[in-house]
Amino acid sequence: MPVMSGTPVTLNMSAPTRGARGKPPRHFVDLTPEQRVEAVTALGEKPFRAKQLATHYFTHLTSDPAEMTDLPKASRDTLAAELFPPLLTAARTLQADGGTTVKTLWHLFDGAKVESVLMRYPNRSTLCVSSQAGCGMACPFCATGQLGLTRNLSTAEIVEQVRAAARSLADGEIPGGPTRLSNLVFMGMGEPLANYKAVMETVRRLVAPAPDGLGMSARNITVSTVGLVPAIEKLTNEGIPVTLAVSMHAPDDELRDTLVPVNTRWSVDQTLDAAYRYFQVTGRRVSIEYALIRDMNDHAWRADMLGEKLNARGKGWVHCNPIPLNPTPGSIWTASDPAVEAEFVARLRAHGIPTTIRDTRGSDIDGACGQLAADEEG
């Protein structure tokens, strides 16, 4: 889950907000290239040190001063201490799918908890990152939504999740040999567009060419949202062609008000209108995410309603991803029967909607983001 310094979208949702936490210490990644030069010169170093540090971080994927052997030892220790404070500590790591799916529970500097999931496929590697500790959207079937919102993550806290995964892949720690991180999805803990500024700045760090960033393709970055319409409209005007994913989960306001409480503010039609405008302006096909929940939202008539609403706005602008729900412990919500799932997909396809069942990797390691953090919270 661009670098525009816009005003963050603020929401007063019904989910609990945990006690205030401290602000993360300043990190090299939080700074623009110009600010990095100012920071190193303020420490008595030559301006070119900023590019050296950027090369180590974004190209060599390290913030360890011991690896910065082209810098004088005294300089590297000072620069690392001032500009690369530790922000994440891996508290727990779980593996699935023969080690090609790795879920990490991170403890942040103030004790807040977030999760990321790295998934290696034959032709790509994808990281799912968190943009908030907890979430304030209060979706009742979501493990993170049950936690409430602790706080937003900083740009550096999000990018550090990415750097750690990219380094793991580059070092060949994931079966299959060394490789690059190719895809990123903001589908971990939190509502990305509720932390708009940090998420946009993160995207700009990721797409900036080396050595100022990771040089990823914006088209391989997906930003998800439950439907914060003003933020979708803002994203539309960013000029960066990320993929927009909208978590719908219901095509009718009556049910979506319950499953996605923000729908009481911005309705299904308002959300779809904003998503369609994103396609019109960017030319980027929108992804519609739909968690299939047994006897709740998986009815064939709801698939028909969704197909009709999508087609009413145009053709070829959307792709649907039904997702078998990954139930959380003790939850009343569970995945749809396979036959019901198949009928739901068939109905969407009958309307001409490209539809692909989402791969549910990591279900045996509490794959839904928020489950490890919830487990630690007791």
TrEMBL record:
The protein's superkingdom reads Bacteria
Q: Name one GO molecular function term.
A: tRNA (adenine(37)-C2)-methyltransferase activity
- Signal peptide per UniProt: none
Recorded hits in Pfam families, A to Z, give: Radical_SAM, RlmN_N
- Matching Gene3D superfamilies: 1.10.150.530, Aldolase class I
Cellular component terms (Gene Ontology): cytoplasm
Ranges where the record places region Disordered: 1-27
What cofactor does this one take? Answer: [4Fe-4S] cluster
InterPro entries cross-referenced by the UniProt entry: Aldolase_TIM, Methyltransferase_A, RlmN_N, RNA_MTrfase_RlmN, rRNA_lsu_MTrfase_RlmN/Cfr, rSAM, rSAM_sf
Query: What's the EC number here?
Result: 2.1.1.192
Query: Keywords assigned by UniProt?
Result: 4Fe-4S, Cytoplasm, Disulfide bond, Iron, Iron-sulfur, Metal-binding, Methyltransferase, rRNA processing, S-adenosyl-L-methionine, Transferase, tRNA processing
Q: Where in the cell is it found?
A: Cytoplasm
Q: Which residues form the Radical SAM core domain?
A: 121-364
Quote the cofactor binding remark: Binds 1 [4Fe-4S] cluster. The cluster is coordinated with 3 cysteines and an exchangeable S-adenosyl-L-methionine.
The family this protein is said to belong to: Belongs to the radical SAM superfamily. RlmN family.
What is this protein for, i.e. what is its function?
Specifically methylates position 2 of adenine 2503 in 23S rRNA and position 2 of adenine 37 in tRNAs.
Protein name in UniProt: Probable dual-specificity RNA methyltransferase RlmN
Its source organism is Cellulomonas cellasea DSM 20118
